[in-house]
Write a structure and sequence with these properties.
The complex is a heterodimer of chains A (about 475) and B (about 220). Chain A is of the alpha+beta class. Chain A contains nine helices and twelve strands. Chain A has three domains: about 15-165, PAS domain (Beta-Lactamase, 2-Layer Sandwich), CATH 3.30.450; about 225-310, Helix Hairpins (Orthogonal Bundle), CATH 1.10.287.130; about 320-465, Heat Shock Protein 90. Chain A has helices at about 15-80, 115-120, 160-210, 225-275, 280-310, 325-340, 360-375, 410, 435-445; strands at about 85-90, 100, 125-130, 140-150, 150-160, 320-325, 345-350, 355-360, 385-390, 395-400, 445-455, 455-465. Chain A is rod-shaped, with a radius of gyration of 50 Å. Chain B is α/β, with parallel strands linked by helices and about 220 residues long. Chain B folds into two domains: about 1-120, Rossmann fold (3-Layer(aba) Sandwich); about 125-220, Winged helix-like DNA-binding domain superfamily/Winged helix DNA-binding domain (Arc Repressor Mutant, subunit A, Orthogonal Bundle). Chain B is built from eight helices and eleven strands. Chain B has helices spanning about 10-20, 35-40, 60-70, 85-90, 105-120, 155-165, 170-180, 190-200; strands at about 1-5, 25-30, 45-50, 75-80, 95-100, 125-130, 135, 140-145, 145-150, 210-215, 220. In chain B, helix 2 packs parallel to helix 3 and helix 6 (about 155-165) crosses helix 7 (about 170-180). The mean pLDDT of chain B is about 85. The chains are: A alpha+beta (about 475), B alpha/beta (about 220). The interface of A and B includes residues 285, 289, 334 and 375 of A.
């Protein structure tokens, strides 16, 4: 593998998968931590609020029972007990004047919320507020409430425990997130590598094949996963390509052979006539022979092209409804004089309806080829029967002859291009007729089979899917 | 009848020209698209035979230009490309017929004559006759020298085709195509067998034979000594 064709890191699928994996993982963790944070801080604030409300309640009942002086002294004691930097209180007149407070030296920045007092005076039982102090000091939670007639209470509590929690939480989150992201990237990379390793092996095989070795196959893992499916599909494609390449090689050999002989003939006759010909009749004969040979060559080339086109499925097969009866009858009419001349009885039974979806011209050609074949290999006095029948499995066209038959060892080869049982090649034809017939049957989703007894005759059966 | 031939292959052009002249046409030959276009625009022709791959101006452009200039001379395309797409394209561009190389000259001739017949609007005959042989297309009766001849439907179609092309050679492929609607040539000579049966009915017993075999090229029906 050259470095030139190696994808850059950011182009690699595994890298992108890892990135996605780590990103999604980090996002999920982040969201979880955030929700956790919101939940805990609101819980802690709730506790402070509860505490403040309880304290205010105590002051309120104290005021009812023992008067303002007792409230003052208890409040002072209370703040001293909790710590003067933790809580504070102010007792206010409805006008907002302070007439009593705890030691406010630490809390001097905190004023009196006029909005809160207005809200209390208009009937709100209590107002809660959070205030940011100067740098370095924790936030303060403040409660305004009415403790007695004409007496308002401002009670504050430092939120330092929340601040401490938040700081600790941040530290933990930062460390955990960093670890988790690293871990997730690791896991993601591992998983992505595993997932794409199969693709890499397919790529390797493809590279080797580009180098010309068509026998290579992608190793299967037999895990039946997508990569295995890809490998299987890839291998199937290779099988098909190998088959095609082999058949193209064989075919070009055959073409070379079968084209060379008529061309040699054409050239030869032209040369001989030109050098030794004396009469017009000789020249006429040369012209005629050349035309005949050229026509034969042309027909052969066209047939070969047609076979490869049909086999490769180029252009596809037309799917028009075709009634087989007239096609078979026409073919019989076409060949009848030939059969009669040879003393062969030709029977065409089209009483049973048979319809297919297909290309009329191709079916016509297939029928003609098979009938031609049957008559060609049946000796005088024999008979050829042609009929079509329909059953649930499909439509069958049968060509039965009492001809020379096919030797068992030849049966598997008769549909190959250029194959002729008769190696002396006394019969006309290039050995393409059956090949084309099979290509046509297959293009229609069907198949041709043959049963034969040497010396007694053969039956060719074309099976085609029925018209639905 | 005057025919314009636009073809850059000298050998093909020469045999087409020779064949057309032998068939009684006056032929002008242009070796490239520009010259062809010039001739087609300035001279009146009864038909034009145009190759597609031409130097300077290609065949399709030539035909398109002709049609734009309201010149409706029937055009037959000669081309080595024979796919359905190519044919359709050629006909869409304004040609009237399409013949794939390699072709039989007899087929080219038959097509040119058919095109000219169509464009001059000659009336469709109801009777065909060659010498003492008469074929009535309406009653489907065939009579030779006053003697009625019974023909099978296929034999009738074959004779009709030969008579419509009387005096012209028709190839096996042409017969397969026009009489049987088969677009290929079975290697076994089915046409020959059919012709020999037709001969038995038409020519047997008559001194003057009407159906002649031109070896290699095909068959011709003519009243000749």
């Amino acid at each position: 593998m050259s470095s030139k064709t190696l994808p850059k890191l950011h182009q690699k699928l595994a890298f992108r998968l890892t990135l996605w994996y780590a990103g999604i993982f980090a996002l999920c963790c982040g969201v979880t931590f955030f929700l956790f944070y919101v939940l805990i801080t609101s819980e802690l604030r709730g506790q402070i609020d509860q505490n403040l409300t309880r304290q205010a309640g105590v002051f309120s009942s104290l005021l009812d029972a023992r008067g303002i002086a007792a409230v003052k002294s208890v409040a002072v004691l209370e703040t001293q007990a909790s710590g003067e930097k933790k809580i504070f209180f102010r007792l206010l007149s409805p006008a907002g004047e302070v007439f009593s407070s705890s030691n406010m030296s630490y809390w001097q920045d905190i004023g009196i919320g006029q909005n809160a007092i207005r809200a209390l005076l208009s009937g709100t039982p209590r107002v809660l507020d959070t205030i940011d102090l100067a740098q370095g000091k924790p936030q303060v939670r403040i409660l305004y409430t009415v403790v007695g007639p004409g007496i308002l209470l401002q009670l504050g509590q430092s939120m330092e425990n929340i601040d401490r929690f938040v700081q600790a939480f941040r530290k933990i989150v930062a460390i955990t997130m960093a670890l988790l992201i690293l871990l997730s990237a690791g896991i993601g990379w591992f998983m992505a590598q595993r997932a794409v390793s199969g693709v890499a092996s397919v790529t390797r095989t493809a590279r080797q094949i580009t180098g010309g070795d068509l026998t290579q196959r992608v190793p299967l893992t037999h895990r039946q996963d997508e990569i295995d499916q890809l490998a299987t599909t890839f291998n199937q494609m290779l099988d098909r390509i190998e088959l095609l390449v082999t058949s193209i090689r064989e075919m070009s050999d055959n073409i070379a052979h079968d084209l060379k002989s008529p061309i040699t003939r054409i050239r030869g006759i032209a040369e001989i006539t030109l050098t030794t010909g004396t009469s017009m009749a000789e020249y006429r004969s040369m012209g005629a022979q050349i035309i005949e040979d050229c026509d034969r060559l042309l027909e052969m080339i066209n047939t070969m092209l047609m076979i490869s086109r049909t086999e490769a499925g180029i252009g596809g097969v037309d799917a028009e409804p075709v009634d087989l009866a007239p096609v078979l009858q026409d073919a019989c009419e076409l060949f009848r004089p030939l059969a009669e001349d040879k003393g062969i009885r030709l029977d065409c039974d089209t009483t049973r309806p048979a319809r297919i979806l297909g290309d009329r011209r191709l079916i016509q050609r297939m029928t003609a080829n098979l009938l031609d074949n049957a008559i060609k290999y049946t000796p005088p006095g024999g008979r050829v029967d042609l009929w079509a029948e329909t059953d649930p499995a499909g439509v069958r066209i049968c060509f039965r002859d009492t001809g020379i038959g096919i030797a068992p060892e030849d049966i598997s080869h008769i549909f190959e291009r250029f194959f002729r049982c008769d190696q002396s090649r006394t019969q006309t034809g290039a050995g393409l007729g059956l090949s084309l017939a099979r290509a046509i049957a297959r293009a229609h989703g069907g198949e041709i089979t043959v049963t034969s007894r040497p010396g007694q005759g053969s039956t060719f059966t074309v099976e085609l899917p029925q018209k639905k | 009848m005057r025919v314009l031939l636009v073809e850059d292959d000298k050998k093909i052009a020469s045999f087409v020209e020779k064949g057309l002249k032998a068939a009684g046409f006056a032929v002008d030959h242009a070796a490239d698209g520009e010259e062809g276009l010039h001739l087609a625009l300035t001279e009146p022709y009864d038909a034009a035979v145009i190759d597609l791959m031409l130097p300077k101006t290609d065949g399709l452009t030539l035909i398109q230009t002709l049609r734009k200039n309201k010149i409706n001379t029937p055009v037959i395309i000669l081309s080595a490309r024979g796919s359905l797409d190519d044919r359709v394209k050629g006909l869409q561009m304004g040609s009237d017929d399409y013949l794939t190389k390699p072709f039989a000259f007899s087929e080219l001739l038959a097509r040119i004559q058919a095109l000219i017949r169509r464009s001059t609007g000659a009336a469709e005959p109801t009777r065909l006759s060659v010498g003492d042989l008469c074929l009535d297309l309406l009653t489907r009766e065939v009579v030779r020298s006053g003697e009625k001849i019974d023909l099978q439907p296929l034999e009738f179609s074959l004779l009709e085709y030969l008579m419509r092309n009387a005096g012209r050679v028709v190839s096996k492929t042409m017969i397969m195509e026009h009489v049987w609607n088969y677009h290929f040539d079975p290697q076994t000579n089915v046409v020959e067998a059919r012709i020999s049966r037709l001969r038995d009915k038409i020519d047997k017993g008559f001194e003057k034979k009407l159906i002649h075999t031109i070896r290699g090229a095909g068959y011709v029906l003519k009243d000749a000594a």
